[in-house]
Amino acid sequence: MNKINIDKEIKSTKDLIKKIEENSKVLKKKQLNFLNKYGYLIIKKNKYLKNNLKLFRSEIDKHIKKDGTKGGWEGKKTFYRKGKLFEPGAQRLGNLIEKNIIFSNLIIIPEILICARNVTKDEIKVCGLNFREPLKGTGYQKIHMDWRPRKKKSEKFAGIVAMIFFDNANTQNGAPRLIPRTHLKKNWPEKYININTRNKKEISPKINAGDILILNLNLWHAGSTNISGKRRRMIMLNIKRRRHPQLLNYQKFLSSITKSKLTNSQKYLLAIRDSDKKQKSDSIGVGKFYKKDFHLNNISHKRV
Ligand SMILES: O=C(O)CCC(=O)C(=O)O
Hints:
With about 300 residues, the protein is of the alpha+beta class. Helices cover about 25% and strands about 15% of the residues. The longest helix has 21 residues. Bound molecules: 2-oxoglutaric acid (AKG).
């Protein structure tokens, strides 16, 4: 199984997972234990991604051409200024499902959903689906995490980010850097290390096109410089516990036409059904908590 093809009404994540694993387990226990222990996991390309890599690449390139320097600003319009890049050094694209319905297939990849459930041990929802590609000579980020730290070890983890790669990635074209086991720490990375420089414990796994790198949202990681300038297209799927807010308010930012094309599982995961809780803000991410904890104004926790 490579994506969910069922379209029955979904009442809970438990229901969804049961349907995904109706016939067989999607991931081995060993893989899930690795994710819990080290905070990351590489999942080798499945048949769906293998068969559709070309299609995704050409669709991504079409939107890069169309959005250009305006890419990635969906939901963040109050911060937008003419000519200001969403992230200097990287090509970004946001609200991908509204751009083309094929991107909605990425949110129902069973391996990703199983990881999200395993990490959160809770009801889950999709909070964001964004494209990032580091550009030649740039793309370096500060070491960060994608959600606020847990206050105590007994607190549940918030979720995962699944990085879906459409090109091979290595240290030459900006493979992500990560520090295994840091998801277990109880504070922001800057409380322990210098987040601006490379850390001696960090690793940059070699990743093939179609592979998925799963990170616990609390794992310390960062983007690297794309030295060679070779393409490194990647989509980040952010999944959190259902009670947490979305990076993009999908009830507001998906049109009625797009919503009508989605399956019941996708509507459940995006929390866009009438019965789903309404989010007031266009976008809520880790930045909100970072700025509060460090008494900052408009400073990114990722930019160097
Ligand atoms: O693109 C990458 O390699 C990592 C990006 C990342 O960690 C982020 O933008 O939060």
